[in-house]
């Protein structure tokens, strides 16, 4: 393993989560513009950070803001006039018109209800917030005229004046919405803003197609169906210098340091501080131009800075996604892990495509955990032509066996080469070659790798680990090879279709031609 | 000159650090606040000093001594109690400075308009003489708001009470 391990020896602090919310003894009153808000069921309360939490719907209504809720991402978006406020459950970072800020508490879920800190929501829209402890009342005054500066006011107190009085509430985690899929780490409990100092490390992975720096314990972005960056970036393309700037308020403080890398891609990674603003910069001095994509891998608690080389216009590139990997084994049956079968087939496919001089990009080439949303996002950043995801199935019934290919449904009447058409080619090729039970192509609009890929994408479930005959096949090198050959044939066909489309697009002058992949 | 700066918390350290750096002192911080109660609060303030230390690149020595029982049992109120609190810190800081070759010491308590400034100054002078190190007295109070804004920009936790268990109960 030529994995270059760099120990950062840097101190950083992060937010720990506390599950106990604190309640005041008395009910809390919320008065917006002299009108008392009536909360019919869910009541406002004081959280463990001494902030007043109010049910999301009421505060939004009273302020006159539109609120939308994205359950998958646990994200609340408030819009009023030209101000957009975005909060995530369990995250102290929030954005106002895209600018990242921090609060000393966070939005939270309690008894299936979403609560937001009144102070931060109200102040985002220019309201003034005042706490009167004797009557346990939060006053929100919207008519502050031109005072729209939410950083100016200093003595914020929407909290109780006596945290020692507060009693612990029941743990709210059990009743919190169970998220689907990957990102469930930050949702539990109420984070108290407590800074911790631990050692972090940076690891540079440069052996395989996917080249990236992994920064442990630091969350640089929230990556889901949308991406929110907690940093600003700049790219000096002339000198190939890419700079990530973290504001002074960022909960993690990295010590200044220079790392000499000096491989074919990167000269140095430098962490430096601006001693006027106390902003921190991570500067990557590369030897050539890259497209940078920064993601946060929740399961490994690390940010990953990807150095990508996108396909040039007209260049064909196939992204191969060996499903699952690392700490995520996929289906497990009789000592066989799905992730291993997926990878074995993917590696064989890669070899076959290379023999045909087709450019490939493996999202993983060993037993690495790749975050779910990274798979489509990396493929998009790479400007890939096709995306093939290799999986295997399992079910609670040993008699079920066979092959199926999943796709994101195309629009009615779409004549372009889509994932749906790609899936049909793949499925036909697999069935012809493998003679397995034909479970056909299946519409799966919610699968992340199919939903968020911009190029034609398909996911093949080659067989069932839970079927004795399928499992025997899947474990055999010859069957894996045949599978890879069938996939290669389908990909060659798919690429041919894309090229034909491109040619005809050029033949028709009214067509733009460059969007054929989309 | 090498100066040992007693740090009561992160937010109060921002402005004094900036001003002392302008005066070309080589600063090192000293976190010794055994009567910040309860222990969670003590830890939280320490963590915020750690962040400030990282951001400003000022090394800080941490002493984790913690005494709550003593303060709960204390009969003193008002200025007498504050006298004991300031003395505890300033004597320890002066002593540490003398033992470890710092030429001078001072404290971030001098930034707060809520503290008994004259008493801090008096006690600083007293322990300077006792241990034979200079007490660098500065009235940082005009910079209090600026310092609090700096703390806000740095995302530091700004506490709402002075620190000891009595100040917490009286709040």
From TrEMBL, chain A:
Keywords: Hydrolase, Signal
Compositionally skewed regions (Basic and acidic residues) per UniProt: 143-156
Record region (Disordered): 140-190
Entry superkingdom: Bacteria
Cleavable signal peptide: 1-24
InterPro entries assigned: Cu_amine_oxidase-like_N, Mao_N_sf, MurNAc-LAA_cat, N-acetylmuramoyl_amidase_3
Protein name according to UniProt: N-acetylmuramoyl-L-alanine amidase
A cellular-component GO term for this protein: outer membrane-bounded periplasmic space
Pfam families referenced in this protein's UniProt entry, alphabetically: Amidase_3, Cu_amine_oxidN1
A single GO molecular function term of this UniProt record: N-acetylmuramoyl-L-alanine amidase activity
SMART domains: Ami_3
SUPFAM superfamilies according to UniProt: Copper amine oxidase, domain N, Zn-dependent exopeptidases
Keyword Cell inner membrane included in the entry's annotation: no
GO BP term, example: peptidoglycan catabolic process
UniProt keyword Signal present: yes
Residue ranges annotated for the MurNAc-LAA domain, each copy included: 376-492
Automatic annotation (TrEMBL), chain B:
Keyword Metal-binding: yes
GO BP terms: tRNA queuosine(34) biosynthetic process
This protein's record includes keyword DNA-binding: no
Any GO molecular function: epoxyqueuosine reductase activity
Enzyme type, top EC level: oxidoreductase
Matching InterPro entries: QueH
Disulfide linkage: 162-164
Entry's EC annotation: 1.17.99.6
Biological or metabolic pathway of the protein: tRNA modification; tRNA-queuosine biosynthesis
Keywords recorded for this protein, A-Z: 4Fe-4S, Disulfide bond, Iron, Iron-sulfur, Metal-binding, Oxidoreductase, Queuosine biosynthesis, Redox-active center, tRNA processing
Binding, [4Fe-4S] cluster: 8-9, 82, 85
Reaction it catalyzes: epoxyqueuosine(34) in tRNA + AH2 = queuosine(34) in tRNA + A + H2O
Residues of the signal peptide: none
Family recorded in the similarity comment: Belongs to the QueH family.
Role noted for this protein: Catalyzes the conversion of epoxyqueuosine (oQ) to queuosine (Q), which is a hypermodified base found in the wobble positions of tRNA(Asp), tRNA(Asn), tRNA(His) and tRNA(Tyr).
Name of protein: Epoxyqueuosine reductase QueH
């Amino acid at each position: 393993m030529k994995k270059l391990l760099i120990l950062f020896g840097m101190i950083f602090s992060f937010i720990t989560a506390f599950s106990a919310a604190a309640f005041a003894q008395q009910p809390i009153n919320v008065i917006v513009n002299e009108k008392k808000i009536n909360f019919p069921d869910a009541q406002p309360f004081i959280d463990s950070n001494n902030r007043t939490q109010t049910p999301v719907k009421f505060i939004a209504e009273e302020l006159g803001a539109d609120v939308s809720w994205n359950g998958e991402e646990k994200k609340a978006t408030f819009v009023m006039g030209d101000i957009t406020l975005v909060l995530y459950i369990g995250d102290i970072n929030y954005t106002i018109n895209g600018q990242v800020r921090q609060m000393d508490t966070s939005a939270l879920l309690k008894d299936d209800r979403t609560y937001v800190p009144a102070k931060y929501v109200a102040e985002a829209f220019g309201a003034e917030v005042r706490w009167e402890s004797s009557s346990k009342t939060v006053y929100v005054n919207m008519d502050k005229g031109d005072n729209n500066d939410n950083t100016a006011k200093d003595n914020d107190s929407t909290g109780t004046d006596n945290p020692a009085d507060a009693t612990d509430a029941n743990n709210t985690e059990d009743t919190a919405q169970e998220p689907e899929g990957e990102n469930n780490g930050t949702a539990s409990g109420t984070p108290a803003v407590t800074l911790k100092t631990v050692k972090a490390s940076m690891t540079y992975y440069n052996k395989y197609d996917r080249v990236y720096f992994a920064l442990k314990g630091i969350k640089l972005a929230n990556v889901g169906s949308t991406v929110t960056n907690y940093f600003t970036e700049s790219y000096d393309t002339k000198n190939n210098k890419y700079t990530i700037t973290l504001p002074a308020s960022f909960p993690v403080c990295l010590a200044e340091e220079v790392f000499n890398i000096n491989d074919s891609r990167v000269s140095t990674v430098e962490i430096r501080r601006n001693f006027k603003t106390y902003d921190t910069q991570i500067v990557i001095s590369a030897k050539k131009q890259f497209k940078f994509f920064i993601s946060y891998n929740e399961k490994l608690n690390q940010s990953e800075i990807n150095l990508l080389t996108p396909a040039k216009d007209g260049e064909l590139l196939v992204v191969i996604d060996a499903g699952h990997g690392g700490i995520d084994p996929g289906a497990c049956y009789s000592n066989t892990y799905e992730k291993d079968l997926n990878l074995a087939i993917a590696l064989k496919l890669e070899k076959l495509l290379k023999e045909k001089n087709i450019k490939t990009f493996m999202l993983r080439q060993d037993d690495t955990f790749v975050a779910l949303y990274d798979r489509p996002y990396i493929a998009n950043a790479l400007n890939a032509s096709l995306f093939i995801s290799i999986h295997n199935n399992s079910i609670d019934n040993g008699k079920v066996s066979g092959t199926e290919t999943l796709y994101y449904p195309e629009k009615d009447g779409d004549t372009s080469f889509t994932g749906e058409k790609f899936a049909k080619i793949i499925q036909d090729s697999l069935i012809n070659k493998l003679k397995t039970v034909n479970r056909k192509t299946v519409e799966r609009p919610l699968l992340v790798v199919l939903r968020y890929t911009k190029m034609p994408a398909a996911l093949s479930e080659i067989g069932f680990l839970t079927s004795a005959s399928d499992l025997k096949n899947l474990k055999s090198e010859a069957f894996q090879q045949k599978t890879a050959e069938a996939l290669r044939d389908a990909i060659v066909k798919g690429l041919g279709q894309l090229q034909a489309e491109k040619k005809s697009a050029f033949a028709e002058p009214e067509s733009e031609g460059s969007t054929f992949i989309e | 000159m090498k100066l040992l700066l007693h740090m009561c918390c992160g937010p109060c350290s921002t402005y004094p650090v900036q001003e002392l750096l302008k005066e070309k002192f080589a600063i090192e911080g000293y976190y010794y606040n055994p009567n910040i109660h309860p222990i969670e609060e003590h830890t939280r303030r320490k963590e915020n000093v750690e962040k400030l230390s990282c951001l400003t690149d000022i090394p800080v020595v941490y002493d984790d001594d913690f005494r709550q029982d003593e303060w709960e049992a204390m009969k003193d109120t008002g200025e007498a109690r504050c006298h004991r609190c300031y003395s505890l810190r300033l004597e320890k800081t002066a002593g540490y400075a003398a033992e470890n070759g710092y030429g001078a010491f001072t404290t971030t308590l001098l930034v707060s308009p809520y503290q008994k400034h004259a008493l801090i100054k008096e006690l600083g002078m007293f322990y300077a003489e006792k241990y034979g190190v200079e007490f660098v007295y500065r009235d940082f109070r005009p910079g209090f708001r600026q310092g609090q804004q700096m703390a806000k920009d740095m995302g530091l936790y700004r506490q709402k009470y002075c620190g000891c268990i009595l100040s917490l109960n009286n709040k």
